[in-house]
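Morning, I've got a small favour to ask if you have a moment. I've been staring at a protein lately and its backbone has me curious. You're getting the sequence in one-letter code plus the fold written as tokens. I've dropped the whole record in just underneath, so have a look:
=====
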Amino acid sequence: ATLVQCIAQINITNLPELINCDIKQEYDQIYLLINHITKRLDNETQHAKINLLQAAKNGPMYGCSSGINALLTIIYHDKYENQKQINEWRTVFDHLIKICLEIASITGPIVSSSSPEGMMPMELTDISSKDEDENSNGQITSQMLLVCCWRTIKEISLLFSRLGQIGIKHIQNENQYRFINLKQVHIICNYYMEQLLKSRHCGAYELAYTGFLIICEQLWSSNCDELCNLPIKWIENGIKMVQENSLDKNKLCLTRRSGGLPFYLQSILTDEPIKQRGQQRTYVAKLMETLLNIIQNDPDTIQIDGQVLENSRK
């Protein structure tokens, strides 16, 4: 990641030749490098779809994702005024969103497993037993697979947050935007909420928390009314979930301490703007009032389908 950042900031006139790029037009080096690494990521993703175990050994996707993230941190997106350049970046970002969602669907089952030593999917069990030269037992293989998938999901979460930082502030409405559009923002947000509200493993929603926090910060300060209202809609929905005890109605995951719901609420509320100096944040106060009422009034146990269970909401 550090290396590609350095390369991007050095004026290398023959960079297209060095990376075997057949583009003849003049492009900035960051674009060329992201485009080049994305092609490598595409290739690794295709291998992962065929055999995730081999991909973890020979082409772990987190390396390319990390390189792209590093380049996105140094991109000077405000300098792009030429519509042709903007359209090219739109194409790259659209492809990155799609490939990241595809990677997440491949690695998600491994990351979401509650097994601390890693989970080996059934379809990979026969493959791992044949790889005795490289792996003495399935335990090592499952841990290696877990590390690959964990790091990949982490980079996806960071990449989506980078795209949010680059694109959200330039969105005015559905038709006026620079790099990413409203639909793509919704896709990114839905990814985070899926991780936070439905994942059964604490690490999965902890990884999503940091990225979603950055996205929510951008949304609160957005110039687009639709985007600016999204955090309000989400927090009202989150408070309603708590009030209605939705955790016991299978609307959310059933992990202890409500799973990722606290991370979800905290991500949204951290950057809630204060309307007037000296006033409380509206939804922070509303959530605290709801939680305090639950502590004071809720029973320790509830009855569901004839069974007495611990009140997960409390």
